[in-house]
Design brief:
This protein is α/β, with parallel strands linked by helices. The chain has 12 helices and 22 strands. The chain is 27% helix and 24% strand.
Length: 428
C-alpha cells in the first residue's frame, strides 16, 4: 500500500554548471545515465542568451528572459552618473552596485520570494558569489556560499552554520554533503537547490575530453548519485519529491580569442582602449557593445563594421535586442554571439567558437572550454525530471528552456506561476 506523506510536496534540484548534454553517457557519467533512464529527459533543452551563469541563474530563478529580469551578462556596463562603467557581476559587491545605480537587482520575483510563505527556499551554491546571490538578492530565503551565507533579510549566517568550502571539486563534494544533511534530510524546504561549480570550472582550465576533464565529470557524477540516493530514501519514508537534475549551459572549445576593443579602436569607432564612449562587455563566446547616448551617431557605423567581421556569428542591433531576449535600453546597442562551428578539438570533442578577450589580464584560455553565445553545444545543457507526473524513460523533443524551470517548480508545488516568460514542463 502507498505510504502516507510525512510532509508537503517539495523540489530538490541539482545543477552541474557547464555540463553539456552529450557528456551524459554510460562511459563518462554512469550515474547520470542511470538517472536519465528513470526520468523524463529533455532533448531540446536550451539556455538563454548570453549563456553565462549569472544570467542563466537569474532566468532560472525568475522564469524570465533577461529583457524581463534585467541582468544581461556576466560582465555588464551601467551608467554611473553620466559615464558608462564596466562591472563584474560575479563579485559579491555587485548587488549593492546594481541597486545603487538602477534601483533594483532583478526586476522580477525569484523562486525564493514566491515560496517565502509556503515552504521556503534553501540554496547551496559553489559558483561565483554574484551568480549565487541572484537566486535570492532580496533575502527571502537562505543562500549558502563560500563568500558569505545569508538568511531571511540577508542576515549573515556565521560560524559552523556558514558554508566554508573551496571553489573546486573538493568544495563541491563538501557542499553536496552539507546539502544532503541539511536540505534533503533535515529542514526539507519546498525548494532546495544545489548548484555545483564543476564541471564548468575544470572545463574553463583544460581541453574538453582531456583526462582532467573526464575526472571532473566522474566527480560530479558521484555527487548526483549521492543526492539521488538521499531523495530515494526520503521518498521511501513518505516524502513527495520532484528531483530536477540539469545544467545551465554547455561548453565549446575556444578556437581564437578576439580583442574586440582593439578592433573598434583601430576602426575609429572607439576613442581609445580605456574610453567610455563605446564600452565592450566580454561574455565568453558572446559580447555586448554599449554606446554612450552622447555618441549614438556611431551606432549605424558600428553595425556595418560588425557585418564584416569573421568572428561575428550573429549580431543583434538596437532594433533586434528584444528578439535575443535582451532589454533595448541602458546603453546596450549590440549583443554579439561569436562565430562557432562543429569541428573537433584534439580530443575529438566537437564544437568550437571564437571568444572575446576578457577584461584586464585574464586569460582567453585558447583551446579550453568556454560559453556565452549561441553555438550548438553551449546551447545544449542538461535537464531531467524524476517524480511527479514526469514519466520514467520518456524523451521530450519539444523545445524547452531554462525559463521553464521556475514555472515547473511552482506548478508541482501548487503555486501560481503567472507573470513569467516560461511555462510548466508538465504541459508538454
Amino acid at each position: 500500500m502507498p505510504q502516507d506523506r510525512k510532509g508537503p510536496s517539495r523540489v530538490v534540484a541539482v545543477i552541474l554548471d557547464g555540463l553539456r548534454r552529450d557528456f551524459v553517457t554510460a562511459e563518462l557519467t554512469p550515474n547520470l545515465a542511470t538517472l536519465r533512464s528513470r526520468s523524463t529527459w529533455f532533448s531540446d533543452y536550451r539556455s538563454v542568451f548570453p549563456s553565462v551563469t549569472r544570467v542563466v541563474s537569474s532566468s532560472f530563478a525568475t522564469g524570465c528572459r533577461p529583457a524581463r529580469h534585467g541582468l544581461v551578462g556576466n560582465t555588464v556596463a551601467l551608467y554611473d552618473g553620466d559615464e558608462l562603467s564596466l562591472f563584474d557581476v560575479g563579485l559579491p559587491t555587485f548587488l549593492d552596485d546594481k541597486l545603487r545605480l538602477t534601483g533594483h537587482v532583478l526586476n522580477e520575483p525569484t523562486l525564493a520570494e514566491r515560496l517565502a510563505d509556503c515552504g521556503g527556499a534553501i540554496i547551496y551554491n559553489n559558483v561565483s558569489p554574484g551568480a549565487a546571490y541572484m537566486h535570492d538578492p532580496n533575502g527571502y530565503g537562505h543562500v549558502y556560499h563560500r563568500a558569505g551565507s545569508f538568511g531571511p533579510g540577508r542576515k549573515p549566517i556565521q560560524g559552523d552554520d556558514a558554508l566554508c568550502v573551496t571553489a573546486d571539486l573538493a568544495g563541491d563534494r563538501r557542499a553536496t554533503e552539507r546539502f544532503i544533511a541539511d536540505v534533503v534530510n533535515t529542514r526539507r524546504p519546498a525548494f532546495g537547490l544545489l548548484w555545483l561549480g564543476d564541471p564548468d570550472k575544470t572545463q574553463h582550465a583544460v581541453p574538453l575530453g582531456s583526462d582532467e576533464h573526464r575526472a571532473a565529470l566522474a566527480a560530479v557524477d558521484t555527487n548526483v548519485a549521492m543526492v539521488a540516493a538521499a531523495v530515494d530514501a526520503a521518498r521511501l519514508a513518505g516524502d513527495d519529491i520532484l528531483l530536477l537534475v540539469g545544467s545551465d549551459h554547455g561548453h565549446e572549445t575556444v578556437s581564437e580569442v578576439v580583442d574586440i576593443v582593439a578592433e573598434l579602436v583601430a576602426a575609429g569607432l572607439k576613442n581609445d582602449a580605456d574610453s567610455r564612449d563605446v564600452v565592450v562587455a566580454p561574455n565568453g563566446t558572446a559580447a555586448h557593445i554599449y554606446v554612450d547616448r552622447r555618441y549614438a551617431a556611431r551606432i549605424p557605423e558600428i553595425g556595418r563594421f560588425l557585418e564584416t567581421r569573421p568572428w561575428v556569428g550573429r549580431a543583434f542591433g538596437p532594433d533586434q535586442l528584444s528578439e535575443a531576449g535582451l532589454p533595448p535600453d541602458g546603453g546596450l546597442s549590440f549583443a554579439i554571439a561569436l562565430a562557432s562551428d562543429d569541428m573537433p578539438n584534439g580530443n575529438g570533442v566537437v564544437g568550437r567558437s571564437f571568444a572575446a578577450k576578457p577584461v584586464g589580464d585574464k586569460s582567453g584560455r585558447l583551446g579550453c572550454g568556454q560559453h556565452g553565445g549561441l553555438g550548438r553545444f553551449e546551447q545544449s545543457p542538461v535537464l531531467m525530471l524524476d517524480g511527479g507526473s514526469f514519466q520514467p524513460g520518456r524523451c521530450v523533443d519539444a523545445p524547452a528552456s531554462v525559463i521553464d524551470v521556475a514555472p515547473t517548480v511552482l506548478h508541482f508545488l501548487g503555486q501560481s506561476h503567472d507573470s513569467v516568460d516560461g511555462r510548466p514542463l508538465q504541459t508538454l
